[in-house]
Specification:
The protein is mainly alpha-helical. It has one domain. The chain has ten helices and no strands. The chain is globular and about 55 Å long. It starts with 20 loop residues before the first helix and ends with a helix. The relative contact order is 0.12.
Length: about 210
């Protein structure tokens, strides 16, 4: 491997360097858990400030350990900083409530638009380590693209119809189980379209 490959990078699907799954999950869930507990003990604006700072710290720790920034947490962190900042600056909780809608809609659009142009970008968005055939990547990308829009719709329904405290609790303890259940439901597809040739999947060649 050349010296160029050793330089810090945001994303390199061809040569992924993944953190321990448990540590990665802790870095992704930690800010959300803090968001929930601070909101329970104070109010949404203090919780938003803690959430914003914790998100940036978690991203920094990820980079320090892996020397790379995965796309999904990076984009999410940018939106958190922007909308968390607007929430605090304008003292309007609407902005932090819109953050999941915007992030999930963005990822859904990127996946489906990329697929329409023959580029299944799922490995980039989800930092995937799977090896699938071209057809497998297309089908999995389509499913995740639709799922992100479903998550966006769920967030809109919950924050518009429920209290702020309920929305915070659902964001932490509702969305994650739903996402895990969906991911596990894709196991048959992953097994059926596993690329056993030893070559990278279709999404990694595009």
């Amino acid at each position: 491997m050349s010296k160029i490959d050793d330089l810090p990078k945001i994303e390199d699907p061809a040569h992924p360097a993944h953190l321990n799954p448990i540590l990665k999950l802790a870095l992704e869930l930690g800010p959300l858990v803090l968001f929930f507990f601070v909101n329970q003990r104070t109010e949404i604006f203090t919780a938003t400030a803690v959430f914003t700072v914790a998100t940036v710290i978690a991203l920094g720790v990820h980079y320090a350990l892996a020397r790379r920034l995965p796309v999904m947490p990076l984009v999410s962190a940018v939106v958190v900083v922007v909308f968390g900042g607007l929430t605090l600056l304008l003292q309007d909780e609407l902005f932090i409530k819109l953050k999941p809608t915007i992030v999930n809609s963005l990822f859904g659009a990127v996946l489906l638009i990329g697929l329409a142009f023959g580029k299944p970008l799922l490995t980039v968005v989800l930092d995937s380590v799977f090896r699938l055939t071209d057809e497998g990547w297309r089908k999995l990308t389509f499913r995740w693209g639709l799922f992100f829009f479903v998550l966006a719709a769920i967030n809109e329904i919950v924050w518009r119809t429920q209290t702020t405290d309920f929305w915070v609790s659902f964001k932490v303890f509702g969305i994650m189980p739903i996402t895990i259940a969906f991911a596990l439901a894709q196991t048959p597809l992953l097994m059926r379209y596993e690329d056993k040739s030893g070559a990278d999947g279709g999404a990694e060649r595009t």
